[in-house]
């Protein structure tokens, strides 16, 4: 099954947001102290306490702009974007020139995909935050720089905010994500750990750190963090979903199914749920269940190419190749750059539809998308392997191994290609590598007969040009001499090949290697470029319309030779006095002996219009002259 069906649902990362306010703090009274406490709780990631305190502050003072802003920010962390927007609007009516509130409101617009409004609000926030003075101001400007894809400036703002407020856990979270985006996972992990040291109950961080562990392929730790996240929020669909993915990666398939069952109860129309649960069923070889889940995922989201790819894998297992091809085709149509779908469609072109050129085209498209896609190189190698162009096959297997040194099938295929050109030493090295990587080679037996081929690449264009139309002819006669008798090659296929470097290499290799246990052959492609004639009753044949050039003519003369044997039938013994006489009796019986003789020669046409006469025979046979 293609690796694509193992992809988990895109990890949804919860928002980690801190409230930054400047210019709206009132006198230090009791109401203000509640508001300040709400800010403190929010900055350390205690969102539930922050929400409760902000609500209390608003009850005491309906004109508390800061409290509305805090409450709005908490509501965003709960994905209640509509009510968050309402609270931001109230805050801005009370404090219309506060840059931090504009930054928060812009983020809320962004999460609602109101991109024009988001940009306008971010621009306003940036202009109002040109001279940050507090930790909160720097944090606010950092969020704007994040939006503007200015990671270095954002990181500098979050760092300054931490200098002014070392307990700003959400600043560590923001810096962690910048590190993660830069593929600096060790630094990102350290930042998450710093935030959790400030607030071990910062529940959303366990989810985020779990995602980072997943990306680091530390599935055990990721599952532990998702479990910790679920202790704070048992109904978190995303945490359940992602823990199910981790269980699947660990091979704990029953636990994964249990998590997916819970997700199905909480979110029954989640297409990704059925797509991923289908993956687990597939791994359990429960093809009917996998098919049903993939089909349901398609019904819920018919525009997602992955689901068609996965269902196509089920059809392939069922050997329903037309249905599999239709699904792979749909996946490619939905996503023309979908490398995995192109690979699978190419495999069907190659193996089932007997259209290898279309398969090759799909594999080459994959390499345009991803030059390091090992299996694309390997499958191109198989294409040339099937054509018995082994040097080209080996070249592509080399690239497959270079892209993925653990691609054990590439080693196995390359071993076969090496054997086909007679290089047993390199073949055995590759077989050992295949076994070292986990492959299994069973003991086998054979006749001991080997077929080997030239290493060189056959040049089809050169051969086609050499067989172009001319005005010369070659006429010949073929005979075989056996036991003093002459046998004409009657009704035999005679083949004429243009002489190419590949044919010359084959001929030299045959002279060197051919024997009772070794046959030397040309590739299927090379064999296509020839002209055939059928000899007459007296072994005569003609090739016409030839260009000047060098040719190789070959036939295999198979015939039956009639022979006679004296068959003993018994004897009679008589005695005349002291003399005993024995008479043996025989009769003559004719029988046939199958003979086969390969007749061939190189012939050169020197000029156009030349008529060349040749004899093909196993020795000097004067009566066989043309």
TrEMBL record:
Pfam families xref list: TPR_1, TPR_11, TPR_16, TPR_8
Keyword Heme annotated: no
Keyword flag Transferase: no
SMART domains: TPR (SM00028)
PROSITE patterns (UniProt xref): TPR, TPR_REGION
TPR repeat boundaries on the chain: 65-98, 135-168, 169-202, 203-236, 237-270, 271-304, 305-338, 374-407
InterPro entries per the UniProt record, alphabetical: TPR-like_helical_dom_sf (IPR011990), TPR_rpt (IPR019734), Ycf3 (IPR050498)
Keyword set, alphabetical order: Repeat, Signal, TPR repeat
Endpoints of the signal sequence: 1-30
The protein's name: Tetratricopeptide repeat-containing protein
